[in-house]
Amino acid sequence: MTMNLHFDPDTLVYTTSDLDIGKKYGWLFDKPSNTYSTTNPLEVSRAYEDKAKDILEVAKGLYRTRRFASAAILPSTKTEWPIPAGKSLYEYQKAGIEFILATPNTLLADEMGVGKTIQAIVATNVLGGKTLVICPASLKINWSREFASWSVPEKRVAIISGEKGWDASADVTIINYDILHRNGKGLKSQEWETVICDECHYLQNPKTKRTKAAMRVKSANTIMITGTPITSRPINMLPVLKRLDKAGWHHYPKFVYRYCAAVNTRFGLDVSGSSNEVELSKRLRSTVMIRRKKDEVLKELPPKVKQVIELGAGRKGDKELLKVLGITDPENLSEADYRKLMKFQQGQGAEFSEMSTIRKENAISKLKEAVPFIKDAVVNSGKVVVFAHHKEVVHGIAGQFGEGEVVTITGDTSMTKRQEAVDRFQTDPAVGLFVGNIQAAGVGLTLTASSHVIFAELDWVPGNMDQASDRCHRIGAVGDSVLIQYLVLGGSIDAAMAKALAAKADTIDSVLDDVWLSECFQ
Q1: Phi, psi dihedrals of residue 85, rounded to the nearest 5°
Q2: What is the per-residue pLDDT for 2?
Q3: pLDDT digits (tens, 9 = 90+) for 442-472
């Protein structure tokens, strides 16, 4: 085969003038130059089989010097990783793990929905030793659950809450940013193998207690995780970069004049700008950062990526009702428990009205933890669609955002206002959030400006939620993968409903050819 191929090591782009090859393998076509291009070395090696070995060797060489971290799928030099039986990793995740292990201080900046948590946990399976996870309060339980799901060997996990001390014997300790400084002395004295800072853009202000406390914790390896390494301006990155590579990023004046368009004013140095962005990106990728966007790895991702996120514990009344129903373990439903819950769907049983009331109270009380999670999602994803059941929840979420940042649709919204809300969400960059009722907004709308859906409440019918999420995953978002997250409270009716719905979906052959929530609990 003729080698009509050019590779640019600076942009990491492969370009071919062989139009048949480019068309066959679905590369990106450039009309002015009449060429096809891709950033995926595996695709290139398949297309040019006679040069496959040479192509991958070059790619691996660049990877080993950490200059290849922006490519869609990095060629991994390992084929097996310590993961539980029955689990599997995508190729780009394997490569991400290898990057973490080759870079003791890593900025894992994959786009939301690509699987950063899993990559970090599998890396700790290799690194061993004790791990400290620092994250927003709303994500502590989810991290604990993911460690239980992906750790090899099984690890003992401890969650620190409030003023509670910490268990030095635990393999994994999880704490949230807002209380980190209270436990700083004990955590600082621990010899950590790995410290993971999730949503590390929380550390953009070097003067806050949370940032100072996080930077004081010592470890052999540090994994900083965020889907948005630059939330608004380059200066926000500097505290994290100093933690990861102090020698390379210690010089404040040099950084701000080079990358922040620093200007001297009568009020002092203005570092709110941005400059030399391409250079900064290349420098980050050649040193500490690995970042893959969802559209770069879509060929590996399924059309819908689904996650159940536990935000905290259920309310007391919620748990009491479960006991009245005779359900003692909502996380592990028996067949009898499942039948009881299904009766409520049909409005059967004396407790139905009480359960409906508690579901509403439960959803409203969940707002305290759900709203920060949703705000982080908007920061990470740009545009987010949130579905709920009760109007009070819809308005409770929307009320925490500025008027120009959110649109809502409930059963009370007129048809004209509905279309106006959809149009604003689809076309206005300032509108980052759509919030609607599952019933009122779950059908007939096109919300393809977002590929991130959050259910603040669940519906008894899996098909209703599938239809709702399809507002984003439909024509207009061709080939895109949609991240769908279900917010629940641990040990609550929420959790019981999620389990029951997963079981129900398993008994139905065609819920949009999907096993719905069951995959989230594997």
Answers
A1: -60, 140
A2: 45
A3: 766 778 888 889 998 887 776 777 778 777 7
Rounded Cα distance between 227 and 113, Å, is: 9
User: What residue segments make up the domains of the chain, in order of their start?
Assistant: 5-64, 91-296, 304-314+343-521
Other Cβ atoms less than 10 A from the Cβ of 316: the count is: 8
Candidates 3.40.50.10810, 3.10.20.30, 3.40.50.970, 3.30.70.1230; correct CATH number of 91-296?
A: 3.40.50.10810
The type of residue at 394 is V
CATH topology of domain 304-314+343-521: Rossmann fold (3.40.50)
Residue by residue, DSSP assigns 294-338 as: GGGSTTTS-SEEEEEEEEEEPPHHHHHHHHHTT-S-TTS--HHHH
Residue among 424, 416, 419 nearest 445 (CA): 419
Do 91-296 and 304-314+343-521 share a fold?
A: yes
Q: For residue range 139-176, what is the model confidence (pLDDT) as tens digits?
A: 888 898 889 999 999 999 999 887 666 778 899 999 98
Q: Would you state the pLDDT for residue 515? A: 34
d(CA 403, CA 337): 43
Instruction: Please state, for a pLDDT cut of 70, what percent of the chain lies above it.
Output: 77
Q: What is the chain's Cα-based Rg?
A: 24
Phi, psi of 482 (to 5 degrees): -100, 130
The answer to whether the Cα torsion of 39, 45, 50, 56 is positive or negative is: positive
Q: In angstroms, rounded to a whole number, what is the distance separating the alpha carbons of residues 89 and 202?
A: 28
